[in-house]
Amino acid sequence: MNPTIKVEQVSKSYGKKNVLNDVNLNIPKGQLFGLIGPSGAGKTTLVKMIVGMEKADAGSIQVLDQKMPNLALLQEIGYMAQSDALYVELTGEENLKFFASLYKLSKQEQKQRILYAANLVNLTSDLNKRVSAYSGGMKRRLSMAIALIQDPKVLILDEPTVGIDPELKLSIWSELLRLKNEEEKTIIVTTHVMDEAEKCDVVAMVRDGRILAIGSPKELKELYKTDNFDEVFLRAGRKQA
Ligand SMILES: Nc1ncnc2c1ncn2[C@@H]1O[C@H](COP(=O)(O)OP(=O)(O)OP(=O)(O)O)[C@@H](O)[C@H]1O
Predict the structure, then answer these.
(1) Which residue owns the Cα nearest ligand 1 atom 3?
(2) Does domain 5-83+154-240 correspond to CATH entry 3.40.50.300?
(3) Nearest Cα to 143, choosing from 124, 165, 118?
């Protein structure tokens, strides 16, 4: 079976700045894949290309056997961007309804998905408030609910737990693991939090637009001869320097 996400020899520049350099990834169905690396490494640019929001200068990207970008595939890709794209004059529920209406869902499915997604991120009791009155963390949570609304096969979450309290963070991670284990969702998460990276099946370390190392957290710890994942991150960076 082909991998759910296939990135082949992808490069990208903005003007003269080379942001990604010959990136190759194969992410099979049901894998939880982490992208880590210092700020500016190219993680967001890479996930935006996988979603189809940016075009590669060279190379190709396939998701679910289709070449990206591909509008029809948005039904199957849930994307949570780093900055929230919400309608702040609408309530949380109205936002969820709006995004749900963009997808092929029956009215009944729409209702169920809104209940599920709001409950997952603990927003049920705040759904009637306008988003302009939400805190930063509540907006992040609403963005995550929107990413899940159409029950996509692929979830791409760019720093999903920034600004979210530790208890909810744990419940979000346990749901991500459930989605992977029970529903075989394919999930990409970018993160700066090393204990989150350790929950991934495979982690890629990105720096200066290149993948420096890729493997399971255990393999990366062995490679960099440490028990501590923070140290893996630091040593991978140093090796390149
Ligand atoms: N639209 C753009 N135009 C010009 N430069 C850009 C654009 N988007 C990103 N960049 C540059 O590309 C590089 C990679 O940015 P990117 O957002 O992909 O990094 P990142 O690894 O996601 O960082 P962070 O962890 O801080 O989110 C940075 O130097 C950034 O300034």
Answers:
(1) 14
(2) yes
(3) 118
